Amino acid sequence: MSSPFRTELRLASAEETARLATRIAPLLGPGDVLLLSGGIGAGKTHFARALIQSLLVEPEDVPSPTFTLVQEYDTTAGTLWHADLYRLSDPLEVVELGLEEAFSDAICLVEWPDRLADLTPPSALALELIPEGPGDARLLRADGPTDWAARLAGVLA
Ligand SMILES: Nc1ncnc2c1ncn2[C@@H]1O[C@H](COP(=O)(O)OP(=O)(O)OP(=O)(O)O)[C@@H](O)[C@H]1O
Ligand SMILES: [Mg+2]
User: Are residues 139 and 130 in contact, defined by beta-carbon separation less than 8 angstroms?
Assistant: First the structure.
């Protein structure tokens, strides 16, 4: 078995994070799940917003789904779900929200994916944003099954 994909990248500014998100966007299709982790204010929503806005069919706001838990978008790559599971207390709510189905049928961007526990899709790409120093720099750590290496070649690898 080949080893899983793992890489790190420095993002010096919010703009660099947004630019990376818009470069990953066209590589995604239904069934792709990105797990966006990192502490409060790390930049998960910033990354998701840039990615979603680059794919929207009609321009619209992309609010943080902190209170709605999930937001659904119509994109040029099909339906996209943006979830923020911070307020989730029971992984069973993931099923109630319809997220399990979305994992197979839609593009899904999931903030606070640790809440998924056993429901984490094994094919997902995990992206962690880690603040570096007092400024805007972030370390992006990507982890996922080996096929992501080829898919992200030129963007992350
Ligand atoms: N390198 C960077 N990458 C991403 N965001 C950055 C960066 N530098 C500064 N920022 C700023 O940090 C803030 C990150 O806020 P954001 O809402 O994206 O955080 P979050 O990780 O989603 O937090 P929460 O857990 O509360 O949802 C934004 O205002 C963004 O402009
Ligand atoms: Mg957020």
Answer: yes
Mutate to test the pocket of ligand 1, among 46, 85, 136 (most ligand atoms within 8 A of CB): 46
1 Cα to the center of ligand 1, angstroms: 36
Question: Quick check: CB of 53 below 6 Å from ligand 1?
Answer: no
CB-ligand 1 contact for 71 (6 Å cutoff): no
The architecture that CATH gives domain 7-150 is 3-Layer(aba) Sandwich (3.40)
Q: What is the pLDDT of residues 108-140, one digit of tens each?
A: 999 999 999 999 999 999 999 999 989 999 999
